[in-house]
Amino acid sequence: MTTQPPRPNPTPFTARRLETLAVTAGRPERVVDAPLNPPVVFASTYVGAHDVQAAGLGYGRYGNPTWQALEEALGALEGGRALTFSSGMAAAHAVLELLPLGGVVVIPHNGYLGVAEAVDRRAAKYGGQVRRVNIANTAEVLSAAEGADVVWIESPANPTIDIADLPALGRNLSRRAMFVVDNTFATPLLQRPLESGADIVLHSATKLLSGHSDVLLGALVTRIDQEQPFETLDQIRRSVGAVPGPMEAYLALRGLRTLPLRLAQAQRTAQILAERLVTHRCVHRVWFPGLVSDPGHEVARRTMSGFGSLISIELADAKTADAFIDACLLWVFATSLGGVESTLERRRRWPGELPTVPEGLVRLSVGIEHVEDLWADLAQALDQL
Asked: Mean pLDDT across the stretch 34-56?
């Protein structure tokens, strides 16, 4: 039997579009009989070397080929160097470790509750100041940034979908404060904060990046031209053990491959639903940057390549919002977001949620079901109020 000669390794194709990078980045070297996609590697320890510096991975807390493939893909999409963590909150805590004792942090007045509580706890324990701002007001953010150590922006913000002018902030914050952007709601397909001057990009990869409600995972992406803070964040991850499991990293990378399709479908549907929700008698307000009437529309149109898949609506009060949620049959009452299934929840049900969030606010995470089925369910639930 004649053995076929190995095919020459072709010149790597350089993807110019993010939709292609989402599918191709992080793949193994293209050689005969190599797996097309990175396999999951279960290992707590690796064969060592006398020279520790030359030992490579060494130990399971220091690295894993499955994480590294995911980090390569995320880094390519954001245009930086990525580190993955066991959850989005683990990644957020790693960033907080960069703060000096008594540090000053600027955060959104409407933003993810878990981060806000972590910042407040740190300030109470170690001293320091927390300044809350309306991220949609660039002048207010820049004023609060005077003397600050970190400016932490979440855009679009959770749960009121506020939009920050990231390029304007980046231009003005350069060398004044560390600029951190939570890009969970937008993903790098809609905006790349490092290009706007951010120092660190944060993701709860549990959500849109993974996209199937079956993974807990976080990520940080830093600028390629800065060794710091990447090296320090890597050391923090190693020392506290906030590392992702290999199976979680594998599932996140597999989910990332379909992000362009999932996000495109969800965005189209979200636009239609938002336009219909605005006209319903029971809906007092709709937050969605794709609406021309939304305060963030012009900034989102100028700085983002899409309006995202999150909508928030305000109903009369908490009782009305709870009744609406209970009447939904297709939409799932759940606290997370960004999965293929459409979910919704009333955010003020959580103890500690800021009073700037209305009692009757319901956040809708639009999935990939047919738009008419999603609308029929919302409409029948609203009509019962």
From this structure: 84
Selecting among 192, 207, 237, 346, the annotated active-site residue is 207
62: annotated active-site residue: no
3-state secondary structure of 318: helix
At 45, the amino acid letter reads T
Question: How far apart are the C-alpha atoms of 120 and 229, rounded to whole Å?
Answer: 22
Catalytic residue (one of 182, 199, 223, 262) = 182
Q: Is 126 a catalytic residue?
A: no
The one catalytic residue among 27, 46, 61, 301: 61
Burial of 308 (0-12, 13-18, 19+ CB in 10 A): buried
Long-range contacts of 265-270 (CB under 8 A, 24+ apart): 265/368, 266/309, 266/366, 266/367, 266/368, 267/306, 267/307, 267/308, 267/309, 267/366, 268/371, 269/309, 269/366, 269/368, 269/369, 269/371, 269/374, 270/307, 270/308, 270/309, 270/310, 270/311, 270/366
Pairing of strands 343-346, 332-333: parallel
How far is the C-alpha of 253 from the C-alpha of 13, rounded, in Å? 20
| CA distances, 87 to each of 222, 243, 302, 327 (Å) | 17, 8, 31, 32
What's the pLDDT score for residue 22?
A: 95
Q: What's the chain's length in residues?
A: 385
Name the strand (E) or helix (H) holding 200: strand 200-204
**Residue 312 near residue 287 (C-beta atoms within 8 A):** yes
CA 217/CA 343 separation, integer angstroms: 19
Identify whether the C-beta of residue 358 lies closer than 8 Å to the C-beta of residue 252: no
Within 8 A by CB and 6+ apart from 245, the residues are 86
DSSP 11: P
- Strands, E assignment, 38-191: 81-85, 104-108, 129-133, 150-154, 178-182
Q: How far is CA 325 from CA 30, 111, 364, in A?
A: 49, 22, 10
Active site residue 61: yes
pTM across the whole model: 0.94
Choose, from 112, 131, 162, 347, the residue flagged as catalytic: 112
pLDDT in tens, 333-375: 999 999 999 999 999 998 888 888 999 999 999 999 999 999 9
Token pair in block for residue 51: 């020279």
